[in-house]
Amino acid sequence: MPLDLASAEAGLSEELRCGLDRVARVFDEHLRSDLECVEGLVVHVARYRGKMLRPSLTLLSGLASGRAAITREHETLAAVVEMIHMATLVHDDVLDEAETRRRGRTVNALSGNETAVILGDYLISSAFHLCSTLGSPAVSERIGRVTTTLCAGELLQLSNRGNDALDERTYFQIIERKTASLIALASELGARASDASDAEQRALHDFGLDVGAAFQIQDDLLDLLGDEGVVGKSVRKDQEKGKLTLPLIRHLERMNRDGRSEEAREAFAAARDPERHATLVSRLREDGSIDSALRTARELTERARERLGALPASPARDLLEAMAGAAVERRF
Amino acid sequence: MPLDLASAEAGLSEELRCGLDRVARVFDEHLRSDLECVEGLVVHVARYRGKMLRPSLTLLSGLASGRAAITREHETLAAVVEMIHMATLVHDDVLDEAETRRRGRTVNALSGNETAVILGDYLISSAFHLCSTLGSPAVSERIGRVTTTLCAGELLQLSNRGNDALDERTYFQIIERKTASLIALASELGARASDASDAEQRALHDFGLDVGAAFQIQDDLLDLLGDEGVVGKSVRKDQEKGKLTLPLIRHLERMNRDGRSEEAREAFAAARDPERHATLVSRLREDGSIDSALRTARELTERARERLGALPASPARDLLEAMAGAAVERRF
Fold first, then answer.
1. What is the pLDDT of residues A203-229, one digit of tens each?
2. Is residue B205 part of a domain?
3. Domain assignment of residue B152, given as a range
4. Distance of CA A28 to the CA centre of its chain
5. Does B1 map to a domain?
6. Which residues in chain A have Cβ-Cβ distances shorter than 8 Å to B132?
7. Which distant-in-sequence residues (6+ apart) come within 8 Å of B146 by Cβ?
8. Are A326 and A301 in contact (CB under 8 A)?
9. Model pLDDT, residue A233
10. CATH number for B310
11. pTM (2 decimals)?
12. Quick check: A87 and A124 in contact, CB under 8 A?
């Protein structure tokens, strides 16, 4: 089920589809274990595979930057990045005490936090192991560096839980590290595996960085505004966990110090009270904070699209452009 | 503070001491972050560095299998293995809800489970990243494979929580994967970095496997019999978490089916009741289960020592021999 957008969906070449199927196979085969208890968990996690945003970026970046076809190397890199992403989902669900993921139960809800913690470790280790089979220390170095950055971003977010004075600069630091860095790497590695020029690799890295930030802003908006039935995962988790996101940060910025503290507390407390939450959201709509966050996400995707100018025109580049838009226009 | 044993301590050459100091420096420097919240956690984790068993094995294996001196490569490998070990400690403490580690508070007790989960991830990622700087895909492959094995061992243990019918075969499968595999790798990599022959690498790997299993049996005995003040970390965690270990498995094997279930339940329930626990331990002493477990650990270290016969005689080999004994004879 690739990223949802009618036009992207329609234009998605057979080649990308087949490539993503092979990525899924590499992913599943590499996680196989002789232990029954591990097999059961791995099969469950395979269900979380959803948008395949990161693998799609790797394969399309590979095609857009010179290679005529998707190679085994592109597929392996795509599987590595998706495996790291999957590990972060499993651990994020522990952190968020989330119960639903992709319309199924989370590992923590099903098998307990402890199993979810170790399963996440199993996925991270497997990702690095799979990466090492490519025989490229430079690629392992990039993956190791970015995954470390990603964890640092999560730690920065955790250290700001309940911080009603979280500013926009720190918010962007957090989302760039915890989300955008891996999406940027997914694009960059696709180009690298196609022996693209440094300029093209950089352009695709920066493209991924912008798409990733936009994607996270939209994710935060869905957590704030979405319905669990549509989004397919637990919502209002950010507020419940004391995490301010862009619309709330902009809403609070408009208030004086005292009002700000009170409103932030109200936002955190309203997470499990639909009525209070609806009132909060209407205040955010009224002062334009939601529109403003959405506008920022769209500006980021616009900039992402411009960065693709460094690549020759191609159907793959068109699809990357469409995906940048889909990152924001999605409803789940 | 290297592994505690008077004779080993005394014989520990200046070279090993300096090597371990450099390993600690590589470790600390690689974990540095521009984020204050990460720095604070990393400094705390550095306090957990205790026996330095694994780094010592890497450096000594390197010296015992041909190299006249400890190289930067040995030190980096030692830091990588220790970092993975540290990550497992941080996550284990979350799983065990442990509050004390190396006489200090655990990360989960101090900063919450969520921070401990992500800090563990940060350590694993940093370990792989550091490893990649060595530029050897074969070494990255070994580290990735063993870390994955280790996680599978933890999952196997988790899936057997509360299982009063856990058999010895499964117990050894668990400890070989979750503990011995990394200790074996620590020794093997030291030999590999000295360009040792395949036979020597294998001998040191198998040496580590036996030492590791013995070490874990002793760890389990300390959890059962030790005093938190002496051991330096939370005790009775195995029982509390429904984990059967070797002395209990052998004790239960002597009983009929009904008695076994009842005694296992009593063992799990007695964890937080010193009086009931003391009575349980006296039953284990009486039927020889504790002695029998200790004997097995000693047999393993004996076999480990014999494996060193594949190496030429040297002071480093003598020290490895002494360390094998210390793994079992330690009191913390």
1. 999 999 999 999 999 999 999 998 888
2. yes
3. 6-329
4. 20
5. no
6. 137, 140-141, 143-144
7. B181, B182, B184, B185
8. no
9. 78
10. 1.10.600.10
11. 0.93
12. yes
